[in-house]
Prior knowledge:
Layout: H1 9-41, H2 45-72, H3 81-98, H4 106-138, H5 142-205, H6 223-230, H7 232-262, H8 269-274, H9 280-283, H10 287-294, H11 296-312, H12 322-342, H13 347-358, H14 363-391, H15 402-412, H16 414-427, H17 434-457
Helix pairs in contact: 1-4, 1-5, 1-7, 1-14, 2-4, 2-14, 3-4, 3-5, 4-14, 7-13, 7-14, 7-15, 7-16, 11-12, 11-16, 13-14, 13-17, 14-15
Amino acid sequence: MIGSFKIKMREKIGYASGDLASNLIYQTISIYLLFFYTNVFGLSAGQAGVMFLVVRFIDAINDPIIGTLVDKTNTRFGRFRPYLLYGAAPFAVLAFLCFTTPNFSATGKLIYAYVTYVGLSITYTCINVPYGALTSAITDDNQEIVSLTSVRMFFANLGGVIVSYFVPVLSAYFTKSFGLSGGWQITMSILGIAGAFLLLFCFSSTKERVKSVNQDHKIKFSDLFEQFKTNRPLIVLSIFFVLIFGINSINSSIGIYYITYNVGRADLVQWYTVLGSLPAFVCIPLIPKINRKIGKKPLLISSLLITVLGTLSLLVIPTHAVALILVSRVITSIGSLTAGAFMWSLIPETIEYGEYTTGKRLSGLIYAIIGFFFKCGMALGGAVPGIILGNFGYVANKTQTPHALTGILLTATVVPAVLMILALIDITFYNLDDKKYNHIIATLKERAKLNRGENLNL
């Protein structure tokens, strides 16, 4: 425990650059991978949807293993930062390969898609779990965590804006010279290289300060089940993550179909996707102030209600009313971005709560648990639209039937709204308020003092 410590803005920016790196790839996966697989690579919507689910099943096995490994790590660079250093290059290479279309048979291409997507997902976990856990190692001050997370989310959404606008622009530009598949391949090579350098900057700019009260405890895989038995805030937050990421991923992946086919304005795709991230630059800097004024639950509940309003408005807005559709997108984004940004600041609370109840500081394992659930949400963004579109008769690069257009509309409105209602119910069970959290921090500090005293007497 280090007590209150003011983190310099340079370190906050350095830390946030790691999420900018991740989002250059993650946002591209979330927004464009389903479209790339169906309209460029050559998979059917059903094949792509099933693959998204299979990859998440593999993550179910992979995430806690990596989380346990991270908690056992102890190097001269720290516990978490080494993964940023050594994961940067593989992350860039696999992002490039994932958006490469090989000259294989239909079966060969499907196998290639599985291998590269699974490889990228595993590498993402090896980076994202320790990166997320690094927050709780930089500081244990609640307000500093909210501030650090807000800067992080600001940069994450900057990545979203870059991806939303420049990916279609760059891919279209390079397509003129290198063909459709070549355009995507070169675009991803640029994003991958940029992401690798940003991860290296994050590694060099941050410092691990917070240590476990008792680092002699051996970390075991079975600790995963102990956390689920004793850590109620973690369970509630895990469910919240899968729902919020599911909502955001579905909105992102179906948006390109809705604008292209229902609205009939493929030229507006980049602007529609940009509006999914642009409001972040206004609402995210206000999160620390709003949190201090109204508290956690009111902030999250009001954000979700705003998201419901924006999402369901598409059911009544005519498809020719482009301006109203874009306004609806902004309203939806304000709510979802605020909830999505703030929920990350709650993870360190679950780490402290877990240490308080079990005596073990399982930063890596807890972030692995959260990572699994938010990637399940990502899977919903590919699997649910893919499966629904397949069942409603979607055919790539063709004029869609009224039935297919209905499937797109329902996926863009009703499905996210149902998930948001479930998220509203879930967050009411979060039982860790500021008073209880401050008591936990004070108790852990007392334990740390006693532990240091015992070590001095040995």
